[in-house]
């Protein structure tokens, strides 16, 4: 079915308002923007675990956080189980005047897709690098299919017109894509996940019971491992199999995110490199595909499967939905 973006945003806002969730419009805008750009794995299907956490009390309705440490170029925040989207949306609106600023957050709920934040900073003229961890979903290739790492979300945005925005999981497939395939009754690509016996599978249910594979095999695994260690090291968050509360919101969130903001005025700001590589690769720089999808969906609407939309309608009418 096709839903207009304004209708979807209004529905999501209403669901959250009926549960007295603070900054409901910010959260609804994030999920709607994810759908507009084709990031359905981080779109409205994420409303379900969010609402569940709010109703169970593992995710706060209000935005509360603690500044644990702060300097003129760094800040460490404990999110106190607040909605991660609300917290990070607030953080990127601050003014950062240092050549390089580091932000570290722990114990906030799911933050959505990272490019939402990095692109907004790039449009303000800043370079932004963001990474995080989450519940384990990825196994080490060639071993037992034990889940030891998250999908290691990663985003980089570079100021240009329009900004270059890389936003990806470092697993061979995003876990949300598998959840989406399961809901739609579809298969997943070959070679991205294994079943509980360690055999490659295209069955999304078996993949969720098993584990995802890293992008780039063994090298990709160690890249992911190092980045997740960096997040835990800087934020004080849980790491690996200790992480909870992202998709399974019966538990409070204990994950972390790190963002590095660079002000190009203190460096070279070589925009010619962006234009040159745009010619070399034929104009397909990171972020272009999502912007084209957004333009199309603003005109034609957002395609949602009826089962998911029906669930959203039920969540609006039935409060609480999970208790």
From TrEMBL:
InterPro entries: Mal/L-sulf/L-lact_DH-like_ah, Mal/L-sulf/L-lact_DH-like_NADP, Mal/L-sulfo/L-lacto_DH-like_sf, Malate/L-lactate_DH-like
Keyword Iron-sulfur among record annotations: no
Sorted UniProt keywords: Oxidoreductase
Pfam families, per the entry: Ldh_2
Keyword Oxidoreductase: yes
SUPFAM superfamilies registered for this protein in UniProt: L-sulfolactate dehydrogenase-like
GO molecular function: oxidoreductase activity
UniProt superkingdom: Archaea
Recorded family membership: Belongs to the LDH2/MDH2 oxidoreductase family.
Protein name: Lactate dehydrogenase
Organism of this sequence: Candidatus Aramenus sulfurataquae
């Amino acid at each position: 079915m096709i839903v207009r973006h304004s209708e979807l945003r209004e529905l999501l806002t209403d669901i959250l308002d009926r549960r007295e969730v603070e900054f409901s419009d910010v959260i609804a805008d994030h999920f709607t923007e994810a759908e507009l750009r084709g990031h359905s794995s981080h779109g409205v299907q994420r409303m379900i675990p969010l609402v569940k956490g709010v109703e169970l009390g593992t995710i706060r309705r209000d935005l509360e956080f603690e500044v644990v440490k702060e300097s003129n170029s760094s800040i460490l925040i404990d999110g106190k189980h607040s909605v991660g989207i609300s917290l990070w949306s607030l953080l990127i609106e601050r003014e950062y005047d240092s050549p390089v600023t580091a932000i570290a957050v722990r114990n906030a709920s799911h933050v959505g897709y990272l490019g939402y934040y990095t692109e907004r900073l790039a449009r303000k003229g800043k370079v932004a690098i963001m990474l995080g961890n989450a519940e384990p979903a990825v196994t080490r290739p060639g071993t037992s299919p034990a889940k030891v790492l998250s999908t290691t979300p990663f985003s980089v945005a570079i100021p240009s017109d329009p900004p270059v925005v890389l936003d990806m999981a470092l697993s061979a497939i995003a876990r949300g894509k598998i959840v989406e395939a399961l809901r739609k009754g579809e298969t997943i690509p070959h070679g991205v996940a294994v079943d509980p016996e360690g055999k490659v599978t295209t069955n999304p249910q078996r993949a969720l019971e098993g584990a995802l594979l890293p992008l780039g095999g063994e090298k990709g695994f160690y890249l992911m491992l190092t980045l997740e260690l960096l997040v835990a090291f800087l934020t004080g968050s849980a790491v690996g199999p200790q992480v909870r509360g992202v998709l399974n919101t019966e538990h409070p969130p204990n994950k972390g995110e790190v963002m590095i903001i660079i002000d190009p005025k203190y460096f070279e700001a070589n925009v010619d490199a962006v234009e040159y590589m745009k010619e070399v690769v034929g104009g397909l720089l990171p972020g272009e595909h999502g912007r084209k999808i957004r333009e199309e969906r603003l005109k034609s609407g957002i395609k949602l499967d009826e089962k998911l939309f029906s669930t959203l309608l039920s969540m609006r009418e039935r409060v609480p939905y999970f208790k």
